[in-house]
User: Fold this.
Amino acid sequence: MVLPEFLESSLVLSVVTFIYGAAAVLYWANWIFEKPVLGRSATWLMVIGFLGNTGGIALRWVETYVQGHGRAPFTNLYESLVFFSWTIALLYLVIEKQHKIRSLGAFAAPLAFLALAYAALQNKDIMPLMPALKSNWLIAHVMTCFLGYAAFAVAFGLAVIYLLKARDKGLAWLIGAIFGIGAATLAVTVTGMKTDSFWTLAGSGFFIGAGGALAAGFLTATIINLIKQNDPEGQGRLTKMLPDLGVMDELTYQTILFGFMFLTAGIITGAVWANSAWGRYWSWDPKETWSLITWLIYATMIHARLVRGWRGRRTIYLSLVGFSAVLFTYFGVNTLLKGLHSYAT
Amino acid sequence: MNNKQTVKKPEISFVAFFASVKLSIFLLLTVAATSVIGTLIPQEASLREHYQNFGPTLFRIFDTLGFFNVYQAKWFQFLLGLLAFNLIVCTLKRFPITWKLVTGVTPGFSQGKFNSIKEKHQFTLKMSAQQAQATVLDIVRKRFRTVTEGREGEAFTVYGEKGRWTRMGFYLIHMAFLLILLGAIIGSVFGFSGYVHIPEGESVQSVENKQHEQEMALPFTIKCDSFSLDYYEGTRSISEFTSFVTIIEPGKEPWQTTIRVNHPLRLHGINLYQSTYDISQHSGTIDVQFTDPETGNSETVTTTITQMSPLPFDKGSFMITEYIEHLRSRDGHDMGPAARMHMFSENGPPAVFMMPVGEPDFMQNKMGLDVRVIQGEVTPIYVTGLKVTKDPGVWVVYAGFILILVGCLVTFFMAHQQLYIKISPKGNRSFVEIGGTANKNPQGFEERTRRIARRIENKE
Ligand code: HEM
Assistant:
């Protein structure tokens, strides 16, 4: 069977990337200008993007058969990122339908966009699977893990909205951290091309990162203070459009529970797979260990909430820590730590 | 100041300390934080590599703290033990209370509880209060397990309840966690893991246990009939490693089976995994051509690998001791298959040299003969590398896995729901008030209460 060229999965998915990007822009525009037509078109774009994303995954599945070694398309970094953006879009659309929180789209759509854009940088070749990866447990493992990760990503978006609505100082920390890491990464990549010295690299990364973090953090804190002075009651249009804090808090928590459930299932299916492939269900390899660390952080958050009655900003902060652990498990372990894990190449 | 409070009995404060959630939060975060160490310091590296990496001082500190083997370190296992102890103490302390709560009598409608519900749904029905109660009971009975009816002065009441047992859900998670730890302990005490390497055609009956450096006898003999490597069509990517084996158990007919990656053989509590493979040697024949440069006569000898054959022209004898599939040149270049030749003459030292196989243009002059290796018909003899494990704890761990998932479902997504309905007569109509509470996800249950209210309202 030969498919027409425009029906190539990678092409479809590049188009979907732009659709998610456009949806993100519209969600932001909707939030700022408050025009219903913007919101509705954003939702439509998101739905179209999601359908395209689904089609892309299905096409890739077909392509593996065309190449003669058919297998489910959930086995390498590229495919997992595509599936990741699919789950983010799905979860977001469900939440939007159930809770009518369009402002969440301003964070969920960019995440789906970023995941696909990052996927575009990965190796897209359909490689035949090495024997250890030929297992249904692996498929179950990837799907459950990424459902969990996507739920945590959506919960991250909800947490950011919570902080925005509360005009919380934590926002300054968050933006500081994001800019700091971004600046450090940029510094290391730029100087890394010109120098071999570890200390020059680490030094420039550290100082530029810290500088970026401080600057962005201070700027955000100042803006928050300014807004608070002008509008002590939080009656400004932008904040007023956001859902009630209590609703956000509960919804974030529910999303995290969903993610925790799937992360648990992901760790378990991974262990069962490892046991059938290597005869060991747990070997403390960095990827495994980091998923356990993530699990423990969210378990802590759940206890703090259920037993000690924490609500609001403190649990929101813990969920941010949890999400940074998710990111590190997914990206950091591969790039910064070397492990046995198959994605670590 | 109340003196009684400051003088706590020591055993009570001991229990209180080990049953506290503060301790579990502290322990959970400490385990998370210390687990990071083992991902930063590569745990599989050798002590020598660590020494080179960290220098003498740091090396000594890290070594004392057990950082090179964090997850097996005494203090790490102590932390896990504390976590388990914490859980056990808190369960023992809490369980009787929860049990009483869950199995106790149905509280029924209570005016106090009803008053404390903030959001209620109110409407009037065009029927008598008694009729209304019957209608309401009908609807509530379909949705709630335990339903009671009652009177509150003039008014009729209906109380519905379900999911009280879900308050036990977190015990399932906690028990599951203990089961997983228990399974891990059982595995490390009663289990073992080791490797066997079996050349094709040979068999083994025991395993070398890595941890205890001793030979463990297996309850059966395993013979490797053959080993095969399969490639994806038209590529050099391996699609499957398969060992074809015969199992010989005492008192049973020998039987044949296969072991593949991801498809281990499980037998008498012992698991055999396809782990590695190697080529021990080659068998087959190789044609070697010898030419006497003086006379120009040449003769081709077909020799079997590792068997001595006579050299032509009475020059002595020779043997191919080894066949190599990929001969590497000094710069790592793959030069294809090669044979290691040994030539012996009556007098003088033997000549040992490598010859590429199947390249008649390549010639070496040894002992007055031009030697060319024309071709070979060679097959490798594989050695299959099997990992052998015994882990009686696996099933306990798996039971924990299932239990933790069930526990999460119950704890996170099911709630103890209570519905309170009061129907007051109002002339020949009745005034209905509905309120609900749930111990989890109050918004979700609020939505459900609203639907039930609408259902009753439309029932006229
Ligand atoms: C990782 C292993 C875990 C440990 C060591 C642990 C430990 C504890 C401890 C010591 C308590 C205090 C109980 C009391 O004071 O009565 C507790 C309570 C609780 N834990 Fe866990 N827990 C773990 C995992 C979980 C998970 C994953 C959940 C998921 C929801 C969970 C849910 C709860 C709940 C709901 C309570 C409240 C008990 C109550 O006060 O009614 N636990 N946990």
